[in-house]
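This entry is retained here.
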Amino acid sequence: MLKHMPRRYWGLSVGEAAKYVPEARRGNFIAIGWNELPDLKAWAQREGQDQKRLWEEFRVFYKLRYPSDTLIQSGIQASQVWSFVIGMKPGDIVLVRESPKKKLHVAQVAGAYQFVAAPEDGCEYRHRREVEWIREDVDRDALPEGLKTSLRSLLTIFNLDKHRYAIEELIEELMGVVTGDDLVEVVLRRMAGLGPPQFEDFVGHLLGLAGFSASVTQRVSDKGVDIIGTLSAAGLAEITLNVQVKRIRSNVGIPEILQLRGTLGPDEHAAFVTLAGFTKQAIAEAQAPGKKGIMLIDGEMLVDMILEHYDELSEEYKELLKLQKKGAPLREQFATLR
């Protein structure tokens, strides 16, 4: 399950004098330098450990790679890398500076830390994160004075949590409210920000709310089944449902359907859940006469299930989705920021 954490707010420069901002905007990423450091995914994956001890280990790790830095310099620099790799989480808001133009670009972090060994997009920085741009070319002079002052920081990455309310007001002003069919795409983007294991946990939680006693399978050698659910039909019979989950935005094809069908026993049923859709061939195969049918749940159907059971969702998922319910038809009952 997700650990409940409020989203945080960051200021960031992508290169000296915003050198790589154009590349970042085109490629939907943010990045920091420190190219002498290797891939830091192993550190990011240790975020659940004791943070104080992990930080001390990271400081030593950093100092060994920059031995000429003073202890103070090393601590300041290491803390910035730490913030980008471990402190920053999907859903956080980043204000990206473009100083020469006195502009600001507002982004939401959409993925975990990534390492690009050999960038080919014009930006030489290898330590990156995928983002969704909420709004670009915001006039910095229009910001509250306190936030403007903080954005003058000399650091590459710095925390802006004390300005959370001003930043949220800025986002609301920039984005407006989203509801109806447009809401579907926003919810799917937020689901895509989960890692594969977290998305499987979420779908298992949602199926539990729909009446299944669902459990997520072991993530090694699960043979294509991510979730196994059992539904008791009025105490007269039990239905076993094998569920394959794909956190992707491209359509699922026949091979995945055939793989899932191959996992089924004589009395088992199957469902395939994806954030995207299914090819015509996959749909035909799932519904083929004479073969065991497979229930297909595409992105739109998944969002409707989420909205139907929203009141029952655990608080960590409500925090992720950040929806506001209204009295109207299902997709009109909710609104969020684009």
In short: The two ends are 25 Å apart (CA to CA). The chain has twelve helices and 14 strands. The chain has a mean pLDDT of 88. The chain has two domains: 9-175, 183-337.
